Amino acid sequence: LTRLIDAIASAPVMIVVTARPEFVSPWPAGAHVAALALERLDAPQSARLVATIAAGDGLPRALVDDIVAKADGVPLYVEELAKSVLEAMQDKVSVPATLRDSLMSRLDRLGRAKDTAQVAPVIGQQFSYVLLAAVAGCPADELAAHMESLVDAGLAIRLGGGVELAYRFKHALLRDVAYENLLRARRQALHAAIAHALVSQFPAVAGSEPELLAHHFGHAGNPAMASTFSEPAGDRAA
Known about the structure:
- It is built from 13 helices and three strands.
- The chain is mainly alpha-helical.
């Protein structure tokens, strides 16, 4: 990044780099380098964001004020709470108390696609469609329809296509909420199914990413197999 930043000093190029507040920039501020601290949104900015998301739906002012108050200036919270309210407009509308409540209510409204939305996070934040199909346990056309529902709801993002088709949850919190809502026994069974699918159907992954197998076997409650793959993972890391 430093070489790139130096190289574009006089070029019509802009690079935007995001970081946590504790990051110390190695690039001193100068003619072509600037640092910008992003603060929380104020109430009018949050309300404008809600209005943009709602588009022509025209949320009542009281609902907008409730969203703004509960989001506390965090853009992700504003977006998710607003979407949750919009999706529930046909029901008795109230603003979820927390972001997790909002995300869970959005998952609940997926219907049968919720099952797929809870299998996928066991694989990870990003997951391939072929691996999901190997462990989801539903017909191909039904699985494809479920993934379309997730994408249409703005909960997942489609990546690539064909044999490289993959998906990613829009943000890590959504993946965490879906994962944590699974009963422990169901999580263990899914981790076991994923681990065995990787061994039998994706041997290249088992060879190149043994730590991934160790992770799934460990969470499946199979310490012997987890150790089997942890050892080569440790050797590779060393």
